[in-house]
Hints:
disordered N terminus, 43% helix, alpha+beta, 3-stranded antiparallel beta sheet, 11% strand
Amino acid sequence: MVAEDFLQDPQVRQWLDGVEPAWMLLTFESLRALRHKPSAIQTAIRVANDLSVGEIAGSPVARNTLILLRQAIERGGLPLTATGNLSRAVVSEMCKLIEWPDYDQADAFRFNKVINEPDFLPLHVVRQLAQAATLVRAQRGKLVATPLGKSMLSDARQGSMLAILFHLAFWHMDLGYFGRGLLGSWPADAGVVLWSLSICANDWQSAEKLTRLCTIPEPAMFSGTWDRTPYATEARILRPLLWFGLLECRSEKMPDSRFGEHHFYRKAKLFDRLLAFDVRVDFSEGARHDRFISVCRLSGTTTTAIACTCGLIRRGTACVEAD
């Protein structure tokens, strides 16, 4: 059987390192539902659109989007370059206004003689998201706030802004850009990863551990000479969640390494406030095995898929209905 062949693969055993993924606790129907983006019909994931002003302020993405909107309104538009990026003069001013988690401007700019928008990652992220959400638009060489963007400055409308930006980021934008194309679009299935994080990231966990707990693997993961999966997961999932204010991060220096660090993540309060899940879990061994076979077929994966359950999870800790 596929599971038996898979579990005998020494490469997979080494990659797992004894960790059992959380998503294998889901019933197959819930697993399929989480692979769809949230909508009025697909309700396995619900993104709150009624956050308070204080909760919005706790999200770096939302907080700095409001700064960008206010600047665009107060200055009658922000000058753009021919490529559609904000001008260097604007970038210089925004560097003084934007604060971003786990980001050192001096370190980021130490090799740059001039600072263009893509060199200043926080501004680049915020501008792209705001433009994708039609909060701002290019008009006659300037970035101007749209009527929708202007409305977001009112307390009544701000509550929905983070939901709009989050939905765009995780289900419409290519977050692989932040990983410089590492492992292509993997990890996909953002909904599955987000649910897995909701039950596995209550306490500090390393990026390596969370990668094994929360992602559905694909064959391309094992094609390299070194384990690229934690870096891809950080770039596409963990770091963006940090930017949105849903995760907290801390670092520890690697022993015998001058620059290397281990990164650890856990949920922030905003995670459970913004995201809710309507799923079912099944703890029976046979059901887990059947889901493994089904996931292999859904993913187009044969002997390089994960077939186990999350050893960190206990009955009663997940806000889901268990069969």
